[in-house]
Design the sequence.
């Protein structure tokens, strides 16, 4: 049964948590929106798919941001209680760390279950839908990248393309002019007709020119070369994404259990890291937030963020070592969670164990 103190702590932490999640999600999605707009401007993505992709990306980012947001919300809430001497008053009333952890885990355990549902079951479906939408959007953008009579900059500015006429719903091109930036000099290419091609397996776009001329050289120099060609293929987009990595993210979680494939095992442990890391940081947060009365509550937040960054990077290192065979499959990423949890045990002993061994009461350690 929840006490009045439990409800108070849950309410204060939950309100801060919701605000923090919204702010963090807005920050990362704004960056993702800028990327999608850049791809749409370059003809690599249809504009109609941008907001749907943003919604799918929000699910992906939630798995990473929820543990961080909960850590920050607990730090800010308890930091305020310590600064305003409310925690001292609670300690004087016999409210020890056990009551604080009870209230926090009443909030944290449902969040961990929700995060497990998102990470293990919802996210793979979202990623599969995202890649399908991206492939379809690229095909739609393929037909609309060039407009008759308009100079179009593609491939991060390496090519400037002019098309005099577009036919066959955007696939057939005529009266084509291309200016290309080379490592040494420029190249100017003209062709009577051509076509667009899109490689779905590699995620790359090409323009194929037929029956034309190409001139290469350095501006201001007299060493230009002229070549007549029957067919010339130019690549228009950047380096394609790793399709094997994309496929691994879409595999249903049920297929990842009891596998000997290291890539699949790494993906499974990565999905499990979300809810597990939430419970670990929830154990650490009250220990990191412990401060003296009237002490500022933001100084310790920096230390908490630094610890979370170390935690997150260790998970990335552990995933790489698991895929490369340097870590046992059974060990997975559990050693990273255990290492951070062990650090929390050390903090607990530092704050409470030493004073308790000297005969002080546990509640006095909260003052």
Sequence:
């Amino acid at each position: 049964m929840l006490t009045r103190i439990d409800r108070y702590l849950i309410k204060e932490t939950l309100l801060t948590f919701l605000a923090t999640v919204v702010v963090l999600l807005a920050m990362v999605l704004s960056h993702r929106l800028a990327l999608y707009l850049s791809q749409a401007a370059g003809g690599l993505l249809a504009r109609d798919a941008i907001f749907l992709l943003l919604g799918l990306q929000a699910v992906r980012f939630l798995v990473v941001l929820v543990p961080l947001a909960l850590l920050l919300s607990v730090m800010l809430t308890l930091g305020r209680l310590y600064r305003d001497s409310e925690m001292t008053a609670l300690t004087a009333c016999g409210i020890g760390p056990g009551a604080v952890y009870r209230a926090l885990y009443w909030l944290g355990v449902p969040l961990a279950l929700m995060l497990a549902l998102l990470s293990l079951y919802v996210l793979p479906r979202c990623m599969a839908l995202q890649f399908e939408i991206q492939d379809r959007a690229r095909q739609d953008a393929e037909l609309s990248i060039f407009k008759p009579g308009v100079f179009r900059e593609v491939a991060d500015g390496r090519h400037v393309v002019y098309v005099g006429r577009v036919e066959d719903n955007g696939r057939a091109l005529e009266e084509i002019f291309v200016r290309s930036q080379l490592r040494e000099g420029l190249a100017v290419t003209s062709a009577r007709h051509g076509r667009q091609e899109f490689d779905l397996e590699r995620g790359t776009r090409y323009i194929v020119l037929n029956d034309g001329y190409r001139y290469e050289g350095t501006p201001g120099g007299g060493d230009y070369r002229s070549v007549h060609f029957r067919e010339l293929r130019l690549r228009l987009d950047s380096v394609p994404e790793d399709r094997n990595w994309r496929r691994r993210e879409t595999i249903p979680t049920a297929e990842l259990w009891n596998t000997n494939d290291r890539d699949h095992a790494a993906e499974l442990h990565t999905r499990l890291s979300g809810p597990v890391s939430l419970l670990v940081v929830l154990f650490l947060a009250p220990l990191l937030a412990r401060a003296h009365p009237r002490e500022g509550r933001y100084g310790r937040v920096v230390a908490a963020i630094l610890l979370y960054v170390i935690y997150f990077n260790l998970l990335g290192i552990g995933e790489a070592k698991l895929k490369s065979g340097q870590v046992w499959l059974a060990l997975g990423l559990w050693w990273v969670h255990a290492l951070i949890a062990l650090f929390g045990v050390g903090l607990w002993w530092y704050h409470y164990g030493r004073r308790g061994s000297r005969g002080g009461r546990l509640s006095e350690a909260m003052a």
